[in-house]
Amino acid sequence: MNTNSPAPGKDSSDLEITNISAHGVWMLVREKELFLSYEDFPWFKDQPIRAILNVQEPSPEHFYWPDIDVDLTREIIEHPERFPNVIGKSGVVSN
Predict the structure, then answer these.
(1) Contact 36, 76 (CB under 8 A)
(2) Which of 19, 48, 91, 94 could form a disulfide with 42 if both were Cys (CB 3.0 to 4.6 A apart)?
(3) pTM value?
């Protein structure tokens, strides 16, 4: 029995963290690879691997990491420069 298999009924190909490097996190979402650099998304930098791997997609194109309490959309990931009020230099969400 393979204990690394996804839970029954869950399509693991829709959302997967594919790499965690010194520069950021790579995420595969429905055959599209997204990169979350630590410069743009500093919340991920010093987190345990388990917390980064624990990502959910509560609705299409909306990603949530419950262990880190980080909530991002695909648009924010692809264009962080468009959201200066969401992603501050310190990585703290601002109003």
Answers:
(1) no
(2) 91
(3) 0.75
